[in-house]
Design a protein that fits this description.
Oligomer: single chain
Strand order of the largest sheet: 1-3-4-6-5
Helix content: under 10%
Strand content: over 45%
Number of helices: 0
CATH superfamily: Nucleic acid-binding proteins
């Protein structure tokens, strides 16, 4: 489980067994020196129905993710690079709205999927 902000708008990608909504999330934490360390996590969410959720997965959107962690690797300029990926099981999208008193309130939208895309 982790929270973070989406780094760029989500995309639909086709894999051999399914279509997935793919997006990256920046998870940032302060270390003991007060410096911020950011880890980028690639997320895959099975595409269900018309996939209207993709319209909500835009750059900068804060999300809470729960899922199966996968470690992958790929070649970048001849160097083997490790990456963290998550097969999303639960996704919460956080948005801010203003009520008539101009006070910010957090609205949660929870989407739960039980299918394992992998």
């Amino acid at each position: 489980m982790f929270t973070g902000n989406i780094g760029k708008d989500a995309e639909i990608k086709e894999f051999p067994k399914s279509k997935q909504i793919v997006f990256s999330v920046a998870n940032s934490e302060k270390n003991s020196k007060g410096e911020i360390n950011t880890t980028w996590i690639q997320c895959c969410l099975p595409l269900y129905g018309e996939g209207k959720i993709i319209d909500r997965l835009k750059k900068g959107t804060k999300v809470f993710i729960e899922g199966k962690i996968l470690q992958t690797s790929y070649l970048k300029e001849g160097i083997n690079v490790s990456a963290i990926s998550v097969a999303v099981k639960d996704l919460e999208i956080y948005t801010i709205s203003m009520n008539t008193d101009k006070e910010a309130e957090i609205i949660e939208e929870k989407i739960t999927k039980n299918d394992d895309p992998f």
